[in-house]
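During the no-cost extension, the postdoctoral fellow (Dr. R.K.) reprocessed legacy sequence entries with the updated structure-token encoder. One reprocessed record is reproduced below for audit purposes.
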Amino acid sequence: MARVTESEVMAALRALNDPGSGRDLVAAGLVQGLVVKDGNVQFVLEVDPAQGAKLEPLRQAAEQAVLALPGVTSATAILTAHRGAAPAARGAAPAHDHGHGHSHDHGHEHGKPAAAAQRPPLPGQPKAALPGIRSIIAVASGKGGVGKSTTATNLALALQAQGLKVGMLDADIYGPSQPRLMGLTGRPQSPDGKHIIPHKVAGVPVMSIGFLVAEDTAMIWRGPMVQSALMQMLRDVEWGPLDCLIVDLPPGTGDAQLTMAQQVPLTGAVIVSTPQDIALLDVKKSIAMFRKVDVPILGLVENMSVFVCPNCGHESHIFSHGGARAEAAKQDIAFLGEVPLDIKIRETSDAGKPIVLHYPDSPQAESYRRIARQVWAAAEAQLAGGTREGPKITMQ
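Re-encoded structure tokens follow.
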């Protein structure tokens, strides 16, 4: 079978017109982020926010037009609405309009007007709560490769094992890990075309962009597209009543972190680091970012803290030891505990069998449970303080 090309996809989209301008979709500049790989096609239609909720039929038509091309095995069109958003004040975080009606392959759209309720709240205004979700805890790291996603997975399952109702949102659009870590595949269902039914593991609902695109597909999206996708996965997923939603953030201090801090009433953040100096340099940046946007830091986890030889029991501090504990004391935040560098954790993570769930009696699983108890105690202390206000962004 001949493989479809980008030019063929664009030609098919030129056959459809934008109702607003009367021009074809390509000439109107609506087609963004096109990715063509092995017959799988993904693209974004970026539209006027005032029209976003009305253009679901156009999204479906664009998807079908591409799917009809020879060599196309799957087509995913996502509708985002950002045009016409008010420019952000210089020095402040951008205030993108999120009154979008975009979809992830299943006819999904908000059906809501582009209203101020979807925009980042002004300083001092309360953020829009997610109905039925009591607390939202972000798991973050200053840099990649420190085991943040593995920690988030086992933390969620450890909290669930405590009798709490827990959900997991994979907020890493560019490098989603939760499908692999949780052993999940396939697209989630959307019976009404408006709400997503998430996959579940041991009663934990899980949502990730990784369920909607091929595992080896590069997401070539700009910041506003990432923000829209995050808000849709947060607000249009049928999470059910939850005591806690764990959000696995991407590493660093970028769009996803700022979107969550501005749009969502985060109960707090857990920061994961390895103990060596190079990782702790970036931890300081994460701590500074969360403090800047007024998000409580529940504590710091030291991952890969010590390697214990499975043959002789000798302990080796491959990545140093105690650095995260010392940094927590220096920053006046809680130290939540240590997780060892252990081959069993690596093997279970790669196999999609989280160690807390599949080897609950192991000492490694107990490490995560101890951390989970401390995290929830800190979260409850924050909840007892009442609803937090939105972030106060200062101009310097």
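The chain has eleven helices and 13 strands. The first strand starts at residue 31 and ends at 37. The remaining legacy entries will be reprocessed before the final report is submitted.
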